[in-house]
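User: Is it possible to get a 3D structure for a protein together with its bound compound? The compound here is zinc ion. I've pasted both below.
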Amino acid sequence: MTIWDGGAREQPAAVQALRRALAADEVSHAWLVVGPPSVGQQDLARALTMALNCDHADAPDEACGSCDRCTRIRRGTHELLEEQQPAGAAYVVDDVRDGWIRPASRTVTDGRRRVMRIVAADRMNEAAQNAFLKVLEEPPPSVVWLLEVEDESVLLDTVVSRCRRLTVVPWGIPALRERATQLGVPDARVDAVARAALGSPDRVATLAEEGVLEAREEHLGILDRLATEGPGRVVPTAKELARWAKSRVEPLKQRHAEELARYEDDLGVDARGQGWPPGLRKQLERRHQRLERGEQRRALGLVLDHLATYLRDLLVVGSGGPSDAVVNVDHLDELRRDAARLSPQMVVDGLAAVQRCRDALDRNGNPELQLERLLLALALPLYAHAASGR
Ligand SMILES: [Zn+2]
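Assistant: Yes, that's possible. Here is the predicted structure of the complex:
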């Protein structure tokens, strides 16, 4: 087992490029990590940070993986690795200045290099990119930037041209199957989970969480419920989905409440809430709210992904496409039934409605309202079709 195993193992090309750079002591100050999200980028970033900073390694492209520094980097709790996620639809200038450049410019002790991992860097707006460009033009020698992007075409040429490129790819089905088995997914569901994961081991982990596979069944059955139970189903279904997404945030909320309680203990805060240093409580609460919103958004994203894959599958099944192109292989019978209910045009319109919902949620739209709008867009053609068939 080396530091390059784990999630990075399925990205041999990226690992090879990084190890070569490390071995030659030519690690670029900025890398563009191009590919779908959550396919091992986190483990790549952690392995790189360990290799750059471990004092007990046998070779420059290795790390011991077990010293205090390596352990903390691997857990994501060492300041030599900063990880940034977008809080809303886009990264804005303030995110870049306060969230990236400030931590990046904190001094590191001799010889160490800090890695700044920016998730979804293609969500920088243009002003943010221009602010970031200044860093790329005069890069501090102790910082390595990993900019993860799905679509590099939205970045300014001036940003792209100053980065070295690394490609990451979706995981193959066998590796995803193996991950599902490791996570305790029952044998009968392993294949379906591996396919529904859409190339991402993180998604396997989400699907393996308690209650998520059951929720997936609900999500995949939405079209049928809308078709058979009539328009009255739209509002209650939107409510249920929004409630489910909210419920997924509870464990995180619990951890945040415990963190606040720990602070109060340490600071000796009294029963009336006196004793907090100015601003600290607000700052913590803001951070908690941001993380909780992100978690809820991820749960809503899962609902939308399930709907989108189901609709895409309808196109494949409806056109007699190969069944290995179907994501929801455990629902072939239902797909055949629903493909007869909807014309290809209706399915394409449905996919566009899912995308509109996604965009609205990225702009912090009200989840229940946006889901209602989406379900209505899916439901109306179903009724029109059923009515014309009668
Ligand atoms: Zn080490």
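Residues 222-389 form one domain. Strands lie at 30-34, 81-84, 114-118, 143-149, 164-167.
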